[in-house]
Amino acid sequence: MRILVVEDDRNAAETVRRTLVAQGWAVDVVHDGDSGLARATHGDYHAVVLDIMLPRRNGYEVVRELREREVWTPVMMLTAKDGEYDQIDAFDLGADDYLVKPFPSHVMVARLRALIRRGAPERPAVLTAGSLTLDPAAHTVRRRGTDLTPTPREFAVLEFLMRNVGVAVSKADILHAVWDAHFDGDENVVEVYIGYLRRRIDKPFGCASIETVRGVGYRLVAVD
Amino acid sequence: MRILVVEDDRNAAETVRRTLVAQGWAVDVVHDGDSGLARATHGDYHAVVLDIMLPRRNGYEVVRELREREVWTPVMMLTAKDGEYDQIDAFDLGADDYLVKPFPSHVMVARLRALIRRGAPERPAVLTAGSLTLDPAAHTVRRRGTDLTPTPREFAVLEFLMRNVGVAVSKADILHAVWDAHFDGDENVVEVYIGYLRRRIDKPFGCASIETVRGVGYRLVAVD
DNA sequence: AGCGTTGTTGAGAGATGGCTGAGACAGGTG
DNA sequence: CACCTGTCTCAGCCATCTCTCAACAACGCT
């Protein structure tokens, strides 16, 4: 395991380094945001431990920039502050975990291990199919730049379809993924919602992203 | 997204359920470890939110047992205690993430999303015979790049033939593989569908992939 | 060649699957 | 309370698909 530690406090950095080396991991340490960004971009690490308070470029900026460069290495953020909003910000910017200082070293090790096991998410958070994009976190859907406003159910159906682009999914699959176990209605709801979605995301743009696969279900394809 | 929530405190469970439902996810709630284990094993969820303090079987035991049963659904553990050892134990037992109560609901959502983002099931392989390809997942058939649109029955017959390229299969085999057990009609249907398929996948391209083996049945061969 | 057997095909009746408009109902909001 | 939005049911319509039947063609055997 190769770990990059970005932490400007030399003492803290040394403590972390020792802990990780004791695990048998290879550790590189840098002390400012710029070097951290550069190393993380090109260094091929299994995880990055990133302090928030950094000279030259703070932790938030480093993650955001990393994700913008399509680097998906797991990032664990460290901070002295205890504000919950920091966590949110960190998550929204693309960090994968968060620790509040001071923390026992074995907690950091355990959670780093979990991060590494989870692996780098190959996919960015936004789903795309042709000119259609769906952001699960922001709860937005766009086609050619214009904002669409699906209802919650429509959104859920579309999200499922977009997680299976090009694959024919059955109405039962959709029902199963979107409606909960207590639902005992007809599969016709799915047909109805497909109809709603077509009116919402296809008709106004003259496309046909949702294909019917007779006897099977539906397939979402990438169109412009 | 289908989420299972295992939490014995009815109030807490309801809060979590609402948060997740507001995301457009399908949520099932159970209140004890045994039911949680049963549902998680067979329920096909995208993630499980699991309290540690549970009647009948605690959260640790549930994860351990789940992993022993080779169920790899991502698990997020919840606990009221703030003991660091809980985290370690949880990770070691196979949990994928961990939250200490109380937590802001959007943190839970963000981290659940991160958990779900990782695993996408890979598709089954595409079947090929010369210039003819059939993708069972996408439910598509192509010859030399152009999309063919077989009917469901035609597709089923073709899929069976393509899983047996170069092998002569009898009409009885095809009937058995494609039609259900209650079918009591004539083997002539098979002949009729072979005819349809030839018109669909061979005639327009001037090939002859489906050969008749007189007295035996049919054989699909690879041609360009 | 002649003949029975086996395979091919066109026509068409009936069944099925999918789409949609109308409307009931619930929950939230002014 | 009236109104709006979102969810879901229902029933009718339409296009397509499935399968049967029967005539016809091809094959292979004596």
Portion in helices of chain A: 40-55%
Number of helices of chain A: 8
Which oligomeric state applies? Answer: homodimer
Gyration radius of chain A, to the nearest Å?
A: 22 Å
| Separation of the first and last Cα atoms of chain A | 42 Å
The class by helix and strand makeup of chain A works out as: alpha/beta
Low-confidence stretches of chain A: none
Describe this structure in words.
Two copies of one chain form a homodimer. The first copy, chain A, contains eight helices and twelve strands. Chain A has 224 residues and is of the alpha/beta class. In chain A, the strands form three sheets. Chain A has a five-stranded parallel sheet with strand order 2-1-3-4-5, sandwiched between helices. The first copy, chain A, is elongated, with a radius of gyration of 22 Å. In chain A, 35% of the residues are buried. At the A-B interface, helix 4, helix 5, helix 6 and helix 7 of A face strand 2, helix 4 and helix 5 of B. Chain B binds a DNA duplex (30 and 30 nucleotides) through helix 6 and helix 8.
